[in-house]
Amino acid sequence: MAKLSFTNIGVTGIAAAVPKNKIINLEYTENFPAEEVKDVIEKVGIYERRFAPAGMCSSDLCFAAANQLISDMAIDRSEIDLLIFVSQTPDYRMPATSVVLQHRLGLGTHCAAFDINLGCSAFVYGLSTVFSFMQSGGFRKALLLDGETRSRVYSPKDRKTAFLFGDGGVAAVVENDPKFGESHFSLHSDGSLSDLIKMDAGGYRMPSSPETLTEKVVDEQGNIRTDEHGYMNGPDVFNFVLKEIPSDFKQVLESSGNTIETIDYFLFHQANDYMNSYLAKKLKLDLSKVPSSIAHFGNTSSVSIPLTWVSQLHGKLDGKKKLLLCGFGVGMSWATAQINIDNCLVSELLEVE
Amino acid sequence: MEDFLQLITEVLEIEDRTITAEDHFKQFDEWDSLARLSLIASIDDQYNVIIDDQTFTKLETLQQLYDEIQGRI
What we know:
B: mainly alpha, 4 helices
């Protein structure tokens, strides 16, 4: 079992950036009738999303968030020894976007940098990786960057995904400090479900070609996409979440010595409000402890947990707080963590033009 | 079976008629992908049962859905 625990490592600051360009979902009716759009939006609870304009990458949003955070925390950039960039929408196939960001952010060449390619579980996976490096003792400060431009991944003519996804980028600083105590992580994967959420073409298994860029009707409902658009089997994703997430949640809660009463905030991946509300009900959580940002930003994949943290908990995290983070999705891949924070600096949400 | 039909009536928000076990539920006016989400949640909630999409696609009548759930309890 992939269980990790760490001592005296924690997130000391976090910042997030979203594109200024706001999509009003009820007005996103170019391809579908307004009445149908309204039904979908009310069910999934996604009213607004942010779309990066042409030329803006997930790394640009992370860059803005990181600069803001470094400035707000008055960090000496030369003390950053690790940069991990988490994304499935990187700048290039190569080199790794983290290495490009190391230079853009003015970090030293003594800084280790690499990318992690995972989706909705990736912030928690990334955090576990950063914590592991920090536990080794050879790092002063670490920067975890997590960005997505999911608006470009899905077809606007596929009603199964057209109204769900948005863009954003975050930065978190991780440091050693005795005030943090123990943290607990649980990591999972199930590749037998890899076709539940997938983009078939554009990699090396099915290289990009004129054929893979041609729009096709893909089902009896008349949804249209290319092989280079992502697709999702929503019902089976929901089934997967109900089967795996409550048990993983309870296991981490228990192994960290907590109960649902002792945790201050539960941060779930924001996939859709219907599913998250059902999860919260099933786990009998106090809804005031389950912040939600889905109405404003939609599903931003791995960014959704830290974006909820910044946009919903800004100004609410004075003193010691216990958080439980739970990310799940494409892979399928899922990860849960119980971490402690203490006067965590949360920068104001940035809007990037 | 009665409880099950009551549950389906509530989940699909059927207000104007009484449904029976022989009904082909995917042909209901109220049936769509959003109703599917509600049905997944309510079957999990009520019976603690999860039916994969491949199996679910083959089900046509409410009796078949009921039997599938009973077989998994």
